Amino acid sequence: MHIKYTTERIFDILGADCIAVGEYEGEITGIASLSEGVTGDLSFLGNSKYRSCLENSEASVILVSLDCEELPKKGQIYIKSENPSYALALICRDIENNLTPKPEAGIHPSAIIESGAQVSPNASIGAFCYIASGAQVGGAVLESHVSIGRGASVADEAYLFSRVSVGDYCEIGPRNRLMAGCVIGSDGYGYELIENAHLRVPQLGNVVTDADVDIGANTCIDRARFGSTHIGLGTKIDNQVQIAHNVKVGKHCLIVAQVGISGSVVLGDGVVIGGQSGIAGHLKIGTGAMIAAGTSVFVDIEPQGKARGYPAMPMMQFNRIAVLQRKLPDFFKRFDQLEKTVNSFIK
Amino acid sequence: MHIKYTTERIFDILGADCIAVGEYEGEITGIASLSEGVTGDLSFLGNSKYRSCLENSEASVILVSLDCEELPKKGQIYIKSENPSYALALICRDIENNLTPKPEAGIHPSAIIESGAQVSPNASIGAFCYIASGAQVGGAVLESHVSIGRGASVADEAYLFSRVSVGDYCEIGPRNRLMAGCVIGSDGYGYELIENAHLRVPQLGNVVTDADVDIGANTCIDRARFGSTHIGLGTKIDNQVQIAHNVKVGKHCLIVAQVGISGSVVLGDGVVIGGQSGIAGHLKIGTGAMIAAGTSVFVDIEPQGKARGYPAMPMMQFNRIAVLQRKLPDFFKRFDQLEKTVNSFIK
Amino acid sequence: MHIKYTTERIFDILGADCIAVGEYEGEITGIASLSEGVTGDLSFLGNSKYRSCLENSEASVILVSLDCEELPKKGQIYIKSENPSYALALICRDIENNLTPKPEAGIHPSAIIESGAQVSPNASIGAFCYIASGAQVGGAVLESHVSIGRGASVADEAYLFSRVSVGDYCEIGPRNRLMAGCVIGSDGYGYELIENAHLRVPQLGNVVTDADVDIGANTCIDRARFGSTHIGLGTKIDNQVQIAHNVKVGKHCLIVAQVGISGSVVLGDGVVIGGQSGIAGHLKIGTGAMIAAGTSVFVDIEPQGKARGYPAMPMMQFNRIAVLQRKLPDFFKRFDQLEKTVNSFIK
């Protein structure tokens, strides 16, 4: 990552709401954490857990919150703002645009667009992409080896990284980001046991994603049995997540890596699911619910509910029980002692 | 999903064993669940959990079981059969054949067939497929970006979705369905610790799948150290499953998403493994055993056994203990009270 | 697997440190486990768990340890060495070189090398590979459908299987083996909540792997927010592992399938993580620590620590508690009995 920024450029990006304390006249040539930062680096205090690293940081420019009481060293500048993490995000967006500029519109000569497919002149179609008959691709970016199925659609400003598959008839919304290797529209896992063999139940539906959805690398979203598996506006899905057929995910949910969501589950808006959690079929997870990492959910969760454990229970209850479980060895001893006392007394 | 069916066509598909109650004269233009169905939709009552939705359903044609006592509304028809889920599957199969017809035989001009590879004239080879030297592909369908390794084989009527990899010398059975992104024949994970470094143990075997196996999206099946990792007849594997080297899977097993099976495990016939479960190396899982979702198995399971928990135990035992764990906070209090009572009495 | 070896060839491979007991004059035509081996097979006793299989094995040539007291049958040879597993690995390496010879150097005519990319004349670039501008590929093997991003690099003797993606600016070390479908350099999962929507935090860093790293099929390693996600020398990562942004993995670690490691975690050298375990963000796992399969880690682990459970605790403690949990049903009964006794006595 080779960057070259002046502090003036940083102030331009952040706008009027930030306050400078101290002075640094050199160039900004890198970004690093507080403890790793050296002269020329931009750093930040986004999580109060790292407050103790601030004092000793060698970074030249440090983003801090408005209520930060520490003072910069000589030759160091603190830039105070309400939300230093957001400030960093703005700066990074600017760097990103320079580092990985959006590919130009056009179709790579090696790509194959079947007859009957429609591709916007604003689209950038990478090497070895395959766009099947009846598909529609808007002003989106497709990196290399992307496959778009029959009758599928990709909306404007979507970005599909290398080796994404969008299955037949699936619909990808505007400004979606689909990471490498994700599979949209694989068959739902549905079988009927007929004469001791599993007969596949055809999966006739599709996957529909609303605007501003992110889907992680190697994540899979199955097509609905009929109708649509649906991902709501602004929901962000991490890597290696499995979303089964007919799931409905609300708006602005966060689904962390390796989560598995079984068929026909309904997630309300703003649900947060920690990594490696699983949700059994046909359950309802209420709006704003939070599921801790590694939880296995076998019952509905009410709105704003917090769940944890195997099987899931209210988080407070889980935490209480986890403490008591660790006391079991001592507890068994206390019981044995009491039993002995009682028995000897009775005799 | 645009469909157009008459009720007569439905009766043709289902055959003589179904009974009609009520009447609907319009066209069938969609399929939906009982609660979402509207006029023109076909719906079904496959799971008694949804019985209460039947009465208020607006669907025009509803598949129900023979013993269903409810009666259709005016302009609505109930089609009764022994297994309405199976009836639906038959109808859906017919729709599927219309919606996503099997690609025609032939080799896409962009595909590369290395010299020494054999491809059946009945095969349909998609764009950007790569078939290595010595490979044999029968009358199968390969969608785009499929890779078939040296000396590997794919039998008749197999269907390989976009971006499937079949590694060197692996053998895919007849009528297998391999979902997008799955990897058959990756190296087994085997190392010897030699002078503090991990020396890779060559993995010389392959993967062999019998007929009628389904393999989910982004699932991985490792090649054997030597001999074969083997998947038995009719077994259905969901997305993101990991099957390690030398595993033997029996016939007609169901392996749900994100399950991990360690090296040299042997599964009997008809084993069912719930999502996100894991099985430690070298274990035997008996015929007909069931492993609940999210279970971690560290011991053999007897035939027909039911296991659950971390670490796995008999399901009845797990369920009993799970109830008692939730009583621990109260239990600790009762104990403290009893201890106090005894101690004060003794004094 | 068709092989043809003489016992003399085996002795050549193993060198002077092995001792022969018994005699076998035929050819070696296969490798099999003790119980499956037949005449002509090479077998081995690598794990004392299988000692009982030795006596009845029909294999013709069997690798055993120096202290093995059993004697071969007539027409059977035992080859004794200090580490029979290592001996087998040496033999298998020789077989592997014959079975799947390294592809010749050269660029497949279908591959696309963008202008500004540098490819070594010693590289073997497979069908449909895409190498973006600014990328550098040394004397490595790329199978089919591999994608190398802008400014990324692949060092000498790396082997990238089919459908590997190496993202922009990522650096793959010498002698790495990247299994099919793995994704190096996907975006880290980082968002800021701004006005009730999740704003993506740009991920400006890369992934750097040291020498001799193996990465499993469909594994994902996210690029750092800034700086590098780093995988240390000789570390071996299994299939479907998720490694989040800014993680630092030490040297010679083993990370088994389906493990998830959250952002900014630091693993010391020689850490071993069992399958399906998860590690929460920003934790430190000390050198030589072992984490049992299926564990969810929410606290730091000290060097040489052994952890197990949900949430993770010291393994000894977990095992003790697991035993007591199974006694809970009986324990509750004993308590009820004691309570009754006390109460009736007091009355």
Explain what you see.
The structure is a homotrimer of 347-residue chains. In chain A, the strands form 7 sheets. Chain A has a 10-stranded parallel β-sheet with strand order 7-10-13-16-19-24-27-30-33-36, with no helix packed on it. A 6-stranded parallel β-sheet of chain A has the order 6-9-12-15-18-23, with no helix packed on it. The first copy, chain A, folds into 2 domains: 7-99, Udp-n-acetylmuramoylalanyl-d-glutamate--2,6- Diaminopimelate Ligase, Chain: A, domain 1; 106-318, Hexapeptide repeat proteins (UDP N-Acetylglucosamine Acyltransferase, domain 1, 3 Solenoid), CATH 2.160.10.10. Chain A is flat and about 95 Å long. Chain A has 347 residues and is α/β, with parallel strands linked by helices. The model of chain A has no long low-confidence stretch (mean pLDDT 95). Chain A is built from 5 helices and 38 strands. Chains B and C meet through strand 20, strand 21, helix 3 and helix 4 of B and strand 2, helix 2, helix 3 and helix 4 of C.
